[in-house]
Specification:
By secondary structure, the chain is an alpha+beta fold. Helix content is 26%, strand content 23%.
């Protein structure tokens, strides 16, 4: 475990009291451009997350359930997912489908992904990828996407529509219920830096060369994470250049909502988050379970 996170060991294992009543709703991610370069806005299509059609992906059971309320319509097996503990580990959280494509070309893997359903950042549900010459990928390696066989991927593709909720968990469907709104707020710069690192891992290719913060040498985003967690916030600016600062900030707040962090707001990528002890505890627990790669980063 890194020095950066060691102070939160006790906090991250607190059993979180989830105080909820009635139904809750997922707010959509900020509009993203589709392959057709049109803006997608799902505000008018928000569903109560546990009512109607939704998807539950259980990463430990390696299953994907098509749900209608509390009824399981179909359960399918996951072929592969991102390796736990890696920087490309499959994400957790509660999201909404903002677009899907019958065939999506991955600029990271340089393969075509049939029946692609976008989740968040660089993560999709899709069928077996194939190369431009039509050859299917034989490896079960996944860069973080939820890979299904083509028949099941087509079933999922036809099941979802704009705004369909999708919950990705390693335990239960209700893991990301909203936190309590009654606790006093605190400020946490550590939470900001960890969320910047999380969004970098989920949206940006980590091993491509980029200009270093000194503006004279090249490095990769992955090598900069330790400096960010130590407190070099120029790294945050370097990450944000890939999308534009406000867009990157919107992704940070969208991720907080996806984790049910009701009382957490990021106002700047270089300023402390406004949060609560409960939200902070849930986020640190999330890091331990879904972004444990950050626990292995050595802080100089």
């Amino acid at each position: 475990m890194s020095k950066y996170l060691s102070g939160y060991i006790t906090l991250s294992v607190i059993t979180l009291a989830i105080i909820t009543s009635g139904l809750w709703y997922i707010l959509p991610i900020s509009p993203l451009k589709t392959k057709a370069t049109t803006e997608t806005n799902v505000i008018g299509n928000i569903q109560p997350i546990h009512m109607g059609h939704h998807i539950v992906v259980n990463l430990d059971q390696m299953t994907l359930n098509l749900m209608d309320g509390t009824t399981t319509i179909k359960k399918v097996s996951i072929v592969s997912r991102g390796k736990p503990g890696s920087y490309y580990e499959t994400i957790g959280g509660a999201y909404v489908i903002d677009y899907k494509e019958p065939i999506h070309f991955s600029t990271i893997g340089h393969v075509y992904m049939p029946y692609s359903v976008h989740i968040f950042g660089n993560f999709f549900i899709h069928g077996i990828p194939y190369y431009p010459d039509g050859t299917k990928v034989s490896s079960t390696y996944s860069g973080g996407c939820v890979r299904l066989n083509d028949v099941d991927a087509k079933l999922v593709y036809e099941f979802v529509s704009l705004g369909t909720p999708i919950i990705i968990t390693r335990s239960g469907e209700y893991d990301f219920e909203p936190t309590s709104t009654t606790t006093p707020t605190i400020e946490s710069m550590d939470m900001t830096r960890l969320m910047v690192a999380t969004i970098s891992l989920e949206f940006l290719t980590q091993d491509n060369e980029i200009l270093n913060t000194d503006n004279t040498s090249n490095t990769t985003r992955r090598t900069l994470i330790s400096r960010l967690l130590k407190g070099d916030d120029d790294v945050a600016l370097l990450y944000a250049k890939s999308y534009e600062k406000n867009t990157f900030l919107n992704y940070m707040n969208a991720k907080a909502k996806a984790l049910g962090l009701t009382n957490t707001t990021f106002t700047d990528i270089q300023k402390p988050a406004e949060t609560t002890e409960e939200d902070l505890a849930r986020f640190m627990n999330h890091i331990d379970i879904y972004k444990s790669y950050l626990n292995t980063v050595n802080i100089p």
